[in-house]
Amino acid sequence: MQSLSGCSKRTTRSGIRKMFNMTYGMENIVSFAVGEPDFSAAPRIVEAANKCNMEGFTKYTPNAGLLPLREKIAVTLKENNCAIDPEKEIIVTAGGMEALLITMMVLIDPGEEVIIAEPYWANYPEQVKIVEGIPKTVKVTEEDGFVYNPVVLRKAISPKTKVILLNS
Predict the structure, then answer these.
(1) Phi and psi dihedrals of 109, rounded to 5?
(2) Angle ∠(94,45,83) on CA atoms, nearest 5
(3) What is the CA radius of gyration of the chain?
(4) What is the pLDDT of residues 10-57, one digit of tens each?
(5) Residue 65: how many other CB atoms lie within 10 Å
(6) How far apart are CA 110 and CA 78, in angstroms?
């Protein structure tokens, strides 16, 4: 039997997944575990997905996602004063955690720090560890609206700091 990779050894099992697994299949549970909504997709979304399936749109897409979707995302971003090139600057992922992990893989080299607001989603530090970065937490408080206090944040920045994770 082969031993686990260094990557596996650097990460901690998710307490959130443990809670999810404990309550899986139980009735009348309000779960705060994996951020899953307690409602089904809107009928129009289900209909659109079924239509795509029936029309054969069931194959792999380009790595960055379908260009028409990226173009629609770019339009929405532009409406919010953020001009982005959909062909070069937008990647569609299966979820936020995948997007963050890809971002960490692209930006972080071993030993570089990622500042994370505390409290935080439990997976953030683990993703930093996967890429051999150093998670560095900075407490955010209710008094500050749970956003970084600029004075406290400046003190946390070091020459090893590469990324400051913003979470809303």
Answers:
(1) -100, 160
(2) 55
(3) 20
(4) 777 777 778 788 888 888 877 766 777 778 899 999 999 999 999 998
(5) 15
(6) 35
